[in-house]
């Protein structure tokens, strides 16, 4: 139990046993984005774990403590690198929930976070934002506003939010039920997501088409909402639990064998619903059953094996591992196998693959400067591959890397993994992906 007067209360504090697993060996250091940027011990995983230990032993929660925990991207590269199996992902989520309960943030920070969480986890509100944003982009006012630098001077965080917005196309609503092409091999549910559904509707359409072509009936529950990933990763525990309960309810009666996700951050959280709702007697067993069905789209396609013919795509791509797919879910080989099976396609690996691109949920909004540094570093490594197209599996990564590539002055195509598979199945031209 936490010492009285310390940083933490007795509701799920950072687990002392997990803290004790860290032997401070330093294997995590070269994989930690903030340590790589700044070389500060307290901005490394083992440094943050030391602060958690101090909090458990009675050290009060301070602004300094919180600043080091807030600086963590939650990319989980340290979990992959750790030879002792330290569950840093669990520790930082436990800590952030404590921070949200006990730390008084500045009025400016509260206002920014309030804006973010009143918007991004709400698909209907995001869809309402599409109209004004498309108008800005169509008239060129967004680019004109950036050239003035006014928004950057007023609020770097809001400027970061605006600059990350993708170019919007037409909405692509999905029907509630899509029948498999040919023999049915599986019945799957599709998470349409918040940012994915509003800003990248083409990714959801491509996902449905590929699943259909591979023999899946696809169920798209109209009642589904946010999965709670952003809330979980930022310590908003009760909010995340509410989102999780509603999503379990949405898919529970759909009769699906798997719940398919095409956003890495969402998938990693949904696979952990059993932990998130473990203390809820009405949902604990249901959450566990739901989590066991969750698969990234590359996992389910790899499990089923391909039956739809692939047409050639004569292009070179660089594949970027989304952190919450590679580190949090351990899904690395499956998307590569699917992409390498496309005739004519050449896949290039990116240097420093373990380092986050700087997106990390809302990190690139609340911490724009280090996020920009990481984005520029990732962009340089991507450009160095000589690839024509960057491929990844998360909407946040697509927005972050697109912005960084534009700053680099070396334009290239951007695509979700499933969009490349869809293009090959449909026989679409390579020009689909190349910059205008």
What does this protein structure show overall?
This protein folds into 4 domains: 16-102, Orthogonal Bundle (Fumarate Reductase Iron-sulfur Protein, Chain B, domain 2), CATH 1.10.1060.10; 107-164, no CATH class; 177-302, Rossmann fold, CATH 3.40.50; 309-432, Rossmann fold (3-Layer(aba) Sandwich). The chain is built from 25 helices and 9 strands. 52% of the residues lie in helices and 8% in strands. The chain has helices at residues 16-20, 33-38, 45-56, 63-70, 77-81, 88-102, 107-119, 123-139, 141-148, 150-154, 156-164, 195-199, 201-213, 229-233, 237-252, 264-270, 273-276, 284-293, 297-304, 323-326, 333-340, 363-366, 368-383, 395-408, 417-426; strands at 177-178, 186-190, 216-219, 258-261, 294-296, 315-319, 345-348, 389-392, 413-416. With 436 residues, the protein is of the alpha/beta class. The strands form 2 sheets. The protein has a 5-stranded mixed beta sheet with strand order 1-3-2-4-5. Strand 8 (389-392), helix 24 (395-408) and strand 9 (413-416) form a beta-alpha-beta unit. It is globular, with a radius of gyration of 21 Å.
